[in-house]
Amino acid sequence: MKTLQPSLVNGSVTAPPSKSAAQRAIAIAALCEGESVLYNTGTSEDVQAAIRVCESLGADINHMRQPGDGLRMAGGIKSSVKMLNCGESGLCLRMFSGIAAALPFPVQLTGEGSLLNRPISMITTGMSALGVECLSADGGLPVTIKGPIKKGEFTLDASGTSQLLTGVLIAAPLLHQDLLLRVRNLASKPYIDLTLDIMERFDVRVDHDDYQEFHIRAGQRYSPTDYHVEGDWSGAAFLLVAGTIAGKVTIEGLQKESFQADRMILNALKQAGASLGYPDDEKIIVEKRPLRSFEFDATDCPDLFPPLAVLAANCEGESKIIGTERLHSKESDRAATLFDLLTKLGIGIRVHDNTMYIKGGRIKSAEVHSHGDHRIAMAAATAALNADGPVHITGADAVNKSYPGFFGDLEALM
Length: 414
Fold this sequence. Notes:
The protein is α/β, with parallel strands linked by helices and 414 residues long. The chain folds into 2 domains: 2-16 and 231-413, Enolpyruvate transferase domain (UDP-n-acetylglucosamine1-carboxyvinyl-transferase, Chain), CATH 3.65.10; 19-215, Enolpyruvate transferase domain (UDP-n-acetylglucosamine1-carboxyvinyl-transferase, Chain). Helices cover 30% and strands 26% of the residues. It contains 12 helices and 23 strands. Helix 7 packs parallel to helix 9 (305-313) and helix 9 packs parallel to helix 11 (374-384). The chain is globular, with a radius of gyration of 21 Å.
């Protein structure tokens, strides 16, 4: 159990590495013939899962001198039959399912912890659309995928997640024919922009018509490259909210023009009346001031719900956050766990018709549970800054999934 006392915050902190960017870069580097160097990969559990999967596929991966500094990767898939353990990473499972669909041998994917309880229908349905045989154990993990994709044209529904599409796009250069991929109901378009940007850094280009048709030319190959993983807007969002509600914080290492969906936190902060300053392109200063209620559509950036919920709890009036239908298949059912968290903290919350309504008020001292969800643990810690007494967090170590240094960074500001 972790206990956080109410506190003002002040100081500067560097954003953690983006696990979304790191996992994509690791997967692509594993498909290169030759050595790539990835800097600032971090030590999160999700990144470690991607490393293990790529090693299982035959990549030779060496860590730099300090953990998290980066990786030297000699790519090239060398093995023919593998069990890929994706840990608790949903991105890892879905992305490597898409990659497995392009491989000329069967691949079995499994996971651990909460991932074992998350639905995989989006994978089985997606594989069927690709014409790839997919076998699962009673509708759950492990799942076996028997590629490769043989069609040159198909349609994929991406309403549940864009992560399977990410895997298919990354794997496309492994195939021998041009691909025309029609995509329906695409969720989280910014994450596809991130995927396409990293692919292009490794010399593979994908053309698309307004995200509805993707054209991938055959004959392209990834080139080994040096790639620096940018700062993570998802983790930094909690620190931005911390500064907004409880003091003054400078966040370094965030690219303002990033493709990451969660940079949209800035729009919500502006709506709420936050004080925001930009000394340069990778530095943001936030400072406490009176906050008003806001309305924000988080459909394309559902990971922002936890920090947005804490922001709303500190605003005058009732805020509306749209997109709760995207919350049910995360590390926890985040609509339910956010309701539980804020209710225990004495904040009024209700969920109706894909929208979460939060009425700002006095945050109470309480004992809360992360439900094994890293973002719920970080939300509880951030909310504790303005509580009327200590907040005790059971399962606080869930932050290791994405941001192992979170409590150290937060406490350095207190």
